[in-house]
Amino acid sequence: MVTLDAAWAERWMRRSAADMHAAREELTELDRRIGDGDHGVNMDRGFAAVASRLDDEAVPPRETVAQVLRLVATTLMSTVGGASGPLYGTAFLHAARVTNRADLDGAGVVALVEAAAEGITSRGRAVPGDKTMVDAWAPAVEAAERAADGGDAVEVLRAAAAAAADGAAATVPMIATKGRASYLGPRSAGTEDPGARSTAMLLAAAVAAAGA
Length: 212
Ligand code: ADP
Ligand code: MG
Ligand code: MG
What we know:
- It is built from nine helices and two strands; from the N terminus they run E-H-H-H-H-H-E-H-H-H-H.
- By secondary structure, it is mainly alpha-helical.
- It has a single domain (4-209), classed as Serine Threonine Protein Phosphatase 5, Tetratricopeptide repeat (Alpha Horseshoe).
- The structure holds adenosine-5'-diphosphate and magnesium ion (MG) (2 copies).
- Residues 36, 38, 82 line the site of one magnesium ion.
């Protein structure tokens, strides 16, 4: 059994940094089509800063998932400009509030995903169908809740990640009504929402960090 503890949370964040770096151009290209072309740059900058803070031995204790996620939140808020910095920062901050324990079971993963999604919506006020990262988070929450009925922590995580990927893909035909892409109106249809894509990548990295 894989344990979703502070070491897992660190692996999750280091893998996210590597994945965001690798996807920098892909995310930026999506944002070039329907935004201002900086989402890949924003994510790469933010998660590179997270990885370098994790490399710094002097940085605060990280004995719980919550401590790691709090460090992620403050780093993203201070290094990522634009909409996504405060949104992801709030997501990780709210997730930190419910992960103050040695390791997470299935219900613990549900709580993490629910709190992160709630952080995004409390900050950005978007609803499913607005063509934002909420279109990845909302199905992730539903899938996690369903999987928790009998599923272990990794199964819950895997269900959330799969649903986020499907949710991101489903943003392609949507017309954006929140964020910069909404300025394009109907012309925002035909491109996947960059933030929904980065959300799916983050949850995929969480699964990969669990070795599953
Ligand atoms: P900016 O739009 O300021 O340049 P980014 O390009 O980094 O910031 O992030 C854009 C992403 O932020 C969008 O693809 C969308 O997923 C997300 N986003 C924008 N506004 C909102 C909102 N109100 N609620 C949820 N997500 C949003
Ligand atoms: Mg942008
Ligand atoms: Mg911008």
